[in-house]
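Contributing new records

If you add data, match the layout below exactly. Sequence lines come first and carry their own label; structure lines follow with theirs. Keep one chain per record. Anything else will be rejected by the validation script.
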Amino acid sequence: MSEPLVWRRTEKASEEIVAAGRKDEDEILKLIDADPAATLAKLAQAMGWKLFSGEPNKMRAKRCVDALKRAKFIKETRAGRWQLTPEGDKVLKGETDDKNAVTVATAKMLQP
């Protein structure tokens, strides 16, 4: 009977995943700032995230939006629009000194 192969993620690979997640979250933050009424489908389309069927990958957009909400960089208004919080505005303008502010949720997902 053969042993299953187990791939361990290196520290560098984990850092690259976190950096890619942060880049995605930063781009979504910019898109929300430009269009607070953007739907998940519109955000996914703007990011070029598609499923094999060609449909926009709304789940990937939702994960980014949820991470931004957990980090308290955006909130949803009663009208169903997105709104940047003061902290989100600082992150967007690069005024925060926390280089990993957006990726807190992403980093927690990577922990075993």
